[in-house]
Amino acid sequence: VEGAKIDHALHDNNARRSLEDLLALEEAVERALRKTSQLDTLIIVTADHSHTLTINGYPSRGNPILGIAEKQTDFGLPYTTLMFANGVGYNYTNNGTHILWRNLTNVDTQALDFRQQAAIYREDGDETHGGEDVAAYAIGLKTDLYDNL
What we know:
InterPro entries: Alkaline_phosphatase, Alkaline_phosphatase_core_sf. GO terms for molecular function: alkaline phosphatase activity; metal ion binding. Keywords: Magnesium, Metal-binding, Phosphoprotein, Zinc. It holds the Pfam family Alk_phosphatase. Its cofactor is Zn(2+); Mg(2+). By secondary structure, the chain is an alpha+beta fold. It starts with a helix and ends in a 9-residue tail after the last strand. Strands 2-5-8 form a 3-stranded mixed β-sheet, with no helix packed on it. It has one domain (4-145). Helices cover 19% and strands 24% of the residues.
């Protein structure tokens, strides 16, 4: 099973679509676990790379992950909990003395096609991969080989 649409959504700075596709991948793994036996099947779940998506600010407990984290103190502009380091979600202006970002007041940041804010502009669909290590999870046949090391 491959979750390629997760990657496509991340390259488009669309956190909601990436999270929905991640849940679809989770469902596929759960089905595979139900239809196989750990005695004769090895299931590995991993990614081939990370992206520049990050959790941002100090959102209050219970705040929607696709919602507003808080407001920036100097100008009172809200910013999203999830943001990208780069991508098409870049939307900043220079007022002569400061760089300001798009005012998200009254914007539905949980809409299906909303694109999260990004710090550096890159063309549509051109958000880059991140540099983090990715986790690899395994369950089933032979996964106990390293238990005694």
